[in-house]
Amino acid sequence: MVNENKIIVALDVETAVEARQIIEELRGEVGAFKIGLQLFAAAGASFVREAAAQNVKIFLDLKFHDIPNTVARASVEAARMGVWMFNVHALGGREMMRRTIDAVREVCAKENLIVPKIIAVTVLTSSNQEDLRGVGIQTDIEQQVVRLARLASVCGLNGVVASPREVRAVRQAVEDENFLIITPGIRNREPEVERREKENDFETRDDQKRVMSAGDAARAGATYIVVGRPVLQAENRVSAARKILEEIKQGMQASI
Q1: Is the dihedral of CA 246, 252, 255, 256 positive or negative?
Q2: Is residue 4 a contact partner of residue 31, using CB atoms and an 8 Å limit?
Q3: Paired strand residues for 9
């Protein structure tokens, strides 16, 4: 995993046509691509299968959170799509996560499928302490992230999604060195990206609150770095991806 490309590009676009163009442009420069709710709602499962069939590593970011049986069944379908990784909400609880793992492993064994990596969302990077209190969670954000990461580990999940600010705490709390920490909230800005994000409109507004540079996240112990705007909105996407990859490598070297 040391030499693996750690960049996951978020395909936060409106159409499959745009997504195909980005994949074609960047598949030799990054490690994987993330398909979230927007693109999935627009292009559907057929696009996920199409990309996976072309040996593109897909992180399906739908954040399943429902009763255990429903999440387990949805997760089985994600595995059948051929995704490399998908996620569930850790707040769904112990039974939901364990039944999901059991169901996916059972079906993959029966149908000769590769078992995807299953990770848990802890606290969204768009949330701050006030947001947590607003929904009745009084725990400090870092403590909440660590608590959910430990729960995910105990349940047998492969890792978690956490903001870069909590990566180090999760690394210290979960002793398994193979435990994955996937980190969104990366904001290595190029000038054009920064200009666009200052515009207060629907298309450019930035929801991320707990952010960090790619290099600092890698230095803290992140396994994979999810990058959207800093690459997608750059004038030269390939150059932007290469710049971030170099920052990640430097961050990893500094952490040794």
Answers
A1: negative
A2: yes
A3: 33, 227
Classify residue 2: in a domain, yes or no: no
Q: What angle do CA 170, 173, 177 make, to 5 degrees?
A: 80
Residue 8 tokens, joined:
């996951």
Contact status, residue 30 vs residue 228, Cβ threshold 8 Å: no
Residues spanned by the domain of 200: 7-255
Q: H or E element: which one contains 227?
A: strand 224-227
Q: Name the token pair of 244.
A: 């971030």
First to last CA, the chain: 15
Residue 173, burial from CB neighbour count under 10 angstroms (0-12, 13-18, 19+): middle
Tens digits of per-residue pLDDT, 31-78?
A: 999 999 999 999 999 999 999 999 999 999 999 999 999 999 999 999
Question: Helix, strand, or coil here: 103?
Answer: helix
The verdict on residue 238 lying in a domain is yes
Q: How far apart are CA 13 and CA 38, in angstroms?
A: 7
Number of domains in the chain: 1
Of the candidates 6, 34, 63, 198, the residue annotated as catalytic is 63
Query: The domain that contains 244 carries what CATH number?
Result: 3.20.20.70
Between CA 213 and CA 164 the distance in angstroms is 8
Whole-prediction pTM: 0.89
Residue 1 lies in a domain: no
Would you say residue 224 lies in a domain? yes
Instruction: Report the C-alpha gap between 47 and 37 in whole angstroms.
Output: 13
Is 63 among the residues known to form the active site? yes
